[in-house]
């Protein structure tokens, strides 16, 4: 009887061992599926993160473009930008800057009866049109 009890116990233990091995195989397969899903999700997250960064860059460029268009329409784009610490530099026209050669000046003693001309405007010269030259 003692021998029969040991055989029965051994058989029960063998059955439990088979059951545990089967559960172990199922859990291992389940764990492999979870690892594959985790790798796929990590890859998708990286792609989405990159796409998000591109969208942020695109949005930033869109906002900058909108701001520049607004400045262009309101005429603030062509005015010089000054920092609060830098001194203001007054606009100097090309007529006063020495960039252009000065027009010939005729004196009243050169031309009898004519009026003395002292600047380019009275000499019939007009300043260059620069308003249409926007960046």
TrEMBL record:
| Compartments, as annotated in UniProt | Nucleus
What InterPro entries does the record tag this protein with?
MTUS1/CCDC69 (IPR051293)
Q: Can you name the source organism?
A: Ovis ammon polii
Cellular component GO terms, alphabetical:
cytoplasm; nucleus
Which residues are the signal sequence here? Answer: none
Entry superkingdom: Eukaryota
Protein name per its UniProtKB record: Uncharacterized protein
Biased composition of type Polar residues is found at 77-86
């Amino acid at each position: 009887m003692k021998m029969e009890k040991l055989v029965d116990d051994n058989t029960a233990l063998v059955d439990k061992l088979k059951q545990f091995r089967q559960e172990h195989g199922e859990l291992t397969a389940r764990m492999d599926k979870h690892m594959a899903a985790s790798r796929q999700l990590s890859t998708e997250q990286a792609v989405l993160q990159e796409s998000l960064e591109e969208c942020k860059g695109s949005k930033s460029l869109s906002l900058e473009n909108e701001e520049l268009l607004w400045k262009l329409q309101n005429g603030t784009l062509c005015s010089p930008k000054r920092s609060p610490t830098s001194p203001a530099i007054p606009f100097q026209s090309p007529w006063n800057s020495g960039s252009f050669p000065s027009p010939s000046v005729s004196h009243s003693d050169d031309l009898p009866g004519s009026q003395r001309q002292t600047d380019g405007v009275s000499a019939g010269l007009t300043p260059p049109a620069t308003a249409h030259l926007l960046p």
